[in-house]
Amino acid sequence: MPPSTALRRCFQPPRALLGSASSPARTFSRRSFATKPSPLPTVPTCPSPTCGCAATPAMPEGLDIDRTTPLNGAITGYAEHVLVCTGRDDWPSRIEEENSGDNLAADLKELFGRGGRLSDPFHNISVLNASFPSSISPRPEIQSTSAYLLPSFKYVPFLPRISFDSVEALANGYLLPEKLHSAHDGLSPVHRDRLLRKEAYQSLLPGVQDVKDVVVLICGHGGRDMRCGVMAPVLEREFEEKLEREGLTVATGPVAVGTTAAATIEGGISEKEGVTARVGRISHIGGHKYAGNVIIYLPPGMKAEGKTHPLAGHGIWYGRVEPAHVEGIVRETIVQGNIIADMFRGGINTDRQIILPPDEDHAHFPLAEDGPGKPPSCLRGARLGSSTAADWEPAVVEMSPCELDVASATRAGSIFVVAGSLLGGVAYYLLSPSSDATSLNDTTFVPYTITARESVSATSFVFTVSPRHPNPSLSYLLPLSRNWRYPLWSVEFKQPEVQIARHYTPLPPLRNEDALDGSLRFYVRSVGDGEMSSYLGRLGVGNQVWLRGPHAGFDLLGRLGACAHVVFLAGGTGVVPGLQAASAVLDQRRDTKVTLLWAVRSRHELQAVQRTPRPWWSLWRGEKPLVLGETLEAASPVGRQLQEMKTRYHDRLTIHVAISEEDARFDDKAIFKALTAGPVHKAIKYDSTGCRLHDQGLHNQVSEFESLGAGCACPAPAGVIPGKNLFIVCGPDGFISHYAGPKVWLGGQQTQGPIEGVAARLQEQHPALARDWLVLKL
């Protein structure tokens, strides 16, 4: 769909851009990018330390620090940093995925991210996670998150996680601009109003206060790049020590609000001895190769030697910071107000003006973090005049973050290229689809409609969703095929009322279903404290839901190799990945066997009949699990799926069902019997150490969501396909912990963790199980 007339007018280039392509680039630069010398003082290099400091830590192998590329200007354009106080010091690679998407960063990126409802390329809101703890809510029973807004120098102590209203209030009351960029002049009044700040929303957020602390931020996103993960802890300790040595008070712990302790965020700013500082780690800011990366925010009104601090109200970015530099940074920048030139990446002031060095020779800093399919970084460098080393002086750039991208294009020498960059860049942000995308993808949520729903029990149901816009090329199908691409995969559902997302696994298609129509079926149990499942339980046929995916799981076939037995132990709705796994393995090879053990609470999950009363003499014995055949009386929707698969695969698929309300359990003996009842596979001795597919120890630290990686690295004899039988456990956390040990949070993601519980006991009693079987937790 072409852009509206108003938007086309918005993108009309100035007449000056339509001149000769041979016009000098500097003409455009002077006309469009007004710069002025800044009075900010500088020193050429960081002074040597005068006291002891920690050694620079060694970097991980293959991840060196870039010490040659000029730093000057290596900063992305932004108008505001939102620091989400998580109380954690590392996060998933994509911070919005933490806690399965139930977090403030995800909420804000939904609004301000690419294609978001409030996204504005001329007022970029950069959302970061920070290690600072959130303030303690006056109502502890309500989960709340705190946030810093910089360079607004505001602290928002209470953002309740029970409603999206607080996120809307933060966005509309504090984050949107008070005045729009002139590029928006062609927008309708309604669209302009939507992008403007509304102060009435501020009253909805209690306790908001000015930040009068010096805030030192260190990129410590080890889940994104280990260089920052290694450097950040050392720098954090150094800054805390050197700040206190210079007489500043380093505040730790939650900011107290509404009590006399609130001064912890409002440290005195008249003299150095009264200044309070906070030091914390933050998530990815770009340029990991320049680790350590540090941003220092100095509050407005800060004094230095009785006068206004030269950098008051500014945010200063430094790169390649080592422990030996910390004393000099504290003394020169925080205490005296000098920018250290050879470490300076850029900066920002309270007017949202980006501060860049003027040296043309230092304006080559492509940020390689932008991958294919992502919008270009708003900043690639600007030609801001020239100066000698003796009169080096930063320049304030009076342009929006996105206009900075145009400046780098001027260095290519073509006015027309510059015009195209401006038009294309702005159009990309304002016109590119996100939530308006029509095809299922793993970046944005797309709308689906509930087209069928069938109750299974009083608390569970199976429902079908269909895409609003059919797509003949579905991302989860093999090309020119009706077969699924992944043995295990899931999609995310979004709960728009509270802006959270949860993973759900689709059921394999039934024989009478056409996978090409894009419809997907899901088995859901609605639990009282489950926000997402309760939300889905309230929806009926015709309602709209939002999906994102597919997200691939473990490569089962690569791990199975030449082995032929899979035992899948499922609890509750965890049976759905078991059905996926069985379909993938049994369809791929005729010599495989799958044993499905399903532990379920009520018989109604399987069939709509009452249990047969037990004889009185057997009441002290536990009931044995059911063995499911090819016929099942009054089968539930899930029971029908099991029955159809049993009919299709016959003896290659064995299904046992243990109903807890009837005192049936899968004990150690039942698990061992299942593991040893499959096809005999004569073990061939080879060392699987170091193989990402077959080394159990390596699996301890990986997530079940698997990206494409190297294949098998086992040194097997020629002609032998290495592999292991698979014992997979899927279900609630307590279920997984009992049978295989708990999953472990590591580096911001939920990992497999060591093998414990029933599986560990069986491996200890029968060492061949540890050699021939791989244990996976879903």
From TrEMBL:
Protein name listed in UniProt: Altered inheritance of mitochondria protein 32
GO molecular function: oxidoreductase activity
Gene3D superfamilies attached to this UniProt entry: Glutaredoxin, Nucleotide-binding domain of ferredoxin-NADP reductase (FNR) module, Translation factors
Keywords: FAD, Flavoprotein
Similarity comment text for this entry: Belongs to the AIM32 family.
Cofactor: FAD
PROSITE patterns documented for this protein: FAD_FR
InterPro entries in the cross-refs: Aim32/Apd1-like, Cbr1-like_FAD-bd_dom, FAD-bd_FR_type, FNR_nucleotide-bd, Riboflavin_synthase-like_b-brl, Thioredoxin-like_sf
Transmembrane intervals: none
Region (Disordered): 19-41
Organism: Stachybotrys chlorohalonatus (strain IBT 40285)
CDD domains: cyt_b5_reduct_like, TRX_Fd_Sucrase
Stretches assigned to the FAD-binding FR-type domain: 443-557
Biased composition annotated in UniProt, kind: Polar residues: 20-32
Pfam families: FAD_binding_6, Suc_Fer-like
Stored PANTHER family: ACTIN PATCHES DISTAL PROTEIN 1 (PTHR31902), ALTERED INHERITANCE OF MITOCHONDRIA PROTEIN 32 (PTHR31902:SF7)
